[in-house]
Specification:
With about 500 residues, the protein is an alpha+beta fold. The protein contains 13 helices and 15 strands. Strand 6 and strand 7 form a beta hairpin.
Length: about 500
């Protein structure tokens, strides 16, 4: 057995203990004296917690206000046998053990307090009181549980429809991995079509929704956080499942990743019984859309060319087919407008919102049109779409329709470029010719019948860069689709313009 454990006790307790048991009894020289360990019961002349006796060594534990207090020391031979049998009286719980077999033998003694004695007689009334208390407590607990469940149910019901639960499921993504790391790994090791689905679903589950940053006809856009990194979360209305499906499919196309196309991170679909939540998670760009950016920002030639060149670079990547086993089909956007182009922190653009995109399957010469009820934005629709003369089975028709819309975007950008200290306030194309929310008829009247296009401010003629931009947009929005420039042609022209201006893009 281990050495005795010590319990703190007050000085008074120690002194009272001494009064009870006395110090070392004087012994005759012929008798063997025993050395004992003493604690809280040492004679005044003792050293190193030891004492000598002709009787017994003892260890005692007493109950003092619910706290067990241990004492140890020497018992004189006279009366010690009686004391060693003492088990305390009914008022005081204590236990005493004695020994004489060797010096310091009481170090090995560990007396324990006797159990508390129940009262011998319990009144019948007490039973009733106890029963009453038990029933009351149980009823209260039950009521609390019911109220808690009801509040939780109500909270779930009134919870914002778009909240991705923060789940600490680290199964597929080790801690410390950033989104950039994950995407780079998937590109170097996988098919180049994005993150594995299991990783996407894990990311989607771990996102914290922070605030709503936009709203459109398809749903809402939120700013969220994943492990401290900002992400954009596009939440589609249930009726827009076809758009969500098409956009997810296009983003996950092989070799789709490009610096001027919005970076796709993950997609997830959650059924909650009463509704379906469709999420698309992408890179977050704090400058917002080109539409928002142009409203609040003035441009110089360099900034204008940078926005135009990066936008057309993204469009060029979309339109281009890449051949090979890991090839990429040609894709047309079908809803190009300044609200669907985002501005990055470095002043370049990336193309977003691919819910209406069409793919060209060159092996079978087929155009893969999404089964989508949604149509493009009327203000940006080319004449052949407004007149319903677009050849839907010919993929080049969609490419040229994109170029018409891109011409209008160039006009929006150029108006915000300063020349001679002047610039125009931001306006949407055809702002002076059609109402705020134009109908097909309004647009057909202006674009197809009157064949009008956005007008150029006089100052453009005296600035070489803006004059060339004007020529470029005119060739993009030509009435005849066959006469329009391709994205690659526009990209090369803008690169040449930058070179002549000595601007590095």
């Amino acid at each position: 057995r281990c050495g005795s454990s010590s319990f703190s006790s007050s000085k008074e307790a120690a002194e009272s203990g001494k009064e009870t048991f006395g110090s070392t009894a004087p012994a005759s020289s012929s008798q063997r004296l025993l050395w004992c360990h003493c604690y809280h019961h040492c004679p005044e002349d003792s050293t190193n917690n030891t004492c000598r006796t002709d009787g017994y060594c003892f260890t005692m534990v007493e109950d003092e206000g619910g706290v067990p207090v241990q004492t140890a020391g020497c018992l004189g031979l006279v009366g010690s046998e009686f004391q060693c049998r003492d088990a305390g009286n009914s008022r005081q719980r204590r236990s005493l053990e004695c020994c004489t077999d060797e010096d310091y033998c009481n170090k090995n003694l560990h007396p324990t307090l006797p159990p508390l004695k129940p009262p011998l007689y319990v009144d019948g009334k007490i039973h009733h009181v106890a029963l009453l208390i038990s029933v009351t407590v149980c009823t209260l607990i039950l009521a609390v549980i019911i109220i808690f469940c009801y509040i939780r149910y109500k909270r779930q019901e009134s919870r914002p429809r778009y909240s991705i639960g923060l789940e600490q499921d680290e199964t597929y993504i080790p801690p410390g991995e950033s989104l950039k790391d994950l995407i780079e790994q998937s590109q170097s090791s996988g098919s180049g079509s994005g993150l594995p689905l299991l990783v996407q679903r894990t990311i989607a589950k771990q996102i914290q929704m922070v605030k709503q940053i936009g709203k459109g006809r398809y749903g809402e856009v939120w700013m969220g956080r994943w492990r401290g990194e900002k992400v954009a979360v596009k939440v589609f209305f249930t009726t827009e499942e076809a758009s969500w499906f098409r956009e997810t499919e296009i983003y996950q196309t092989v070799l789709m990743r490009h610096e001027n196309i919005l970076g796709f991170i993950a997609a997830d679909i959650k059924g909650t019984g009463s509704w379906t939540q469709l999420y698309l998670i992408t890179d977050y760009h704090e400058n917002g859309s080109l539409y928002d950016y142009l409203k609040s920002t003035t441009l110089d030639n360099k900034a204008m060319l940078r926005l135009a060149y990066s936008s057309v670079s993204g469009l060029c990547h979309l339109h281009t087919e890449i051949f090979g086993t890991q090839g990429k089909p040609a894709i047309a956007h079908r809803d190009l407008k300044s609200k669907n182009i985002l501005v990055k922190r470095n002043g370049t653009c990336c193309i977003a919102d691919l819910g209406l995109a069409v793919k060209f399957i060159s092996d079978t010469n087929e155009v893969d049109i999404p089964p989508n009820t949604r149509v493009g934005t009327k203000r940006y629709m080319p004449p052949e779409v407004l007149e319903e003369t677009l050849n839907r089975s010919h993929f080049q028709s969609y490419i040229m329709a994109d170029m018409y819309s891109f011409g209008l975007i160039l006009w929006e950008i150029a108006r915000r470029c300063i020349s001679g200290g002047i610039l125009e306030e931001y306006q949407l194309p055809y702002h002076e010719l059609v109402p705020t929310d134009p109908s097909y008829e309004d647009m057909r009247e202006v674009v197809c019948i009157k064949k009008l296009r956005p007008s150029f401010p006089n100052r453009w003629t005296s600035d070489e860069c803006l004059r060339q931009m004007g020529k470029l947009m005119t060739e993009c929005w030509a009435h005849n689709p066959a006469c329009r420039l391709t994205a690659l042609r526009v990209k090369k022209t803008l690169a040449k313009m930058s070179e002549s201006q000595d601007i590095k893009l």
